[in-house]
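Example record

The entry below shows one chain as it appears in the dataset: sequence first, then structure tokens.
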Amino acid sequence: MTILFKVFLCLILIFCCSSLVNCTEFEVGGHDGWIVPKSKDDDQMYNQWASNNRFKVNDTLLFKYKKDSVMEVIEEEYEKCKSSHPLFFSNNGDTVFKFNQAGLFFFISGVSGHCDRGQKMIIKVLDIEATPPPQSANDTAQKPHKSGAAEMTPMRTITTLAIFVLSTLCFILV
């Protein structure tokens, strides 16, 4: 193989791997997770959390909860806080939901009464490839975890490390 071909192959490999890093995993509710709001005044806490973040296709939500569930539903079911046929359902306590398209997504708790008490959320997923973070790294460091800022997840860290190792190997081989 020629050196030019090896360089070209390495660049394609790096480009393909780096596209995996463009997604973000958001932990719904921060440290508290997916819970029933503590007071009536907090009944919009998840929608406020969602409005502080910018979601795009391929981003994921991580719902952490105990003795609960999460459902993706249509808007009518969101308004009624009931669904007999959700678009998505999980009750494993550690649910990951991936956005596969742009648009509005409606989530409610599947436990009777929880949605009525504010455990529900609307997320708008933008129709763009990549977006700048909603705040700078300095802003995130100064705010508490509950601010809704996305955190670097282990999967993103591993992907970033893999890209670095692959790019280093490619240029050593060339």
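Notes for this example: The first strand starts at residue 25 and ends at 27. The radius of gyration is 20 Å.
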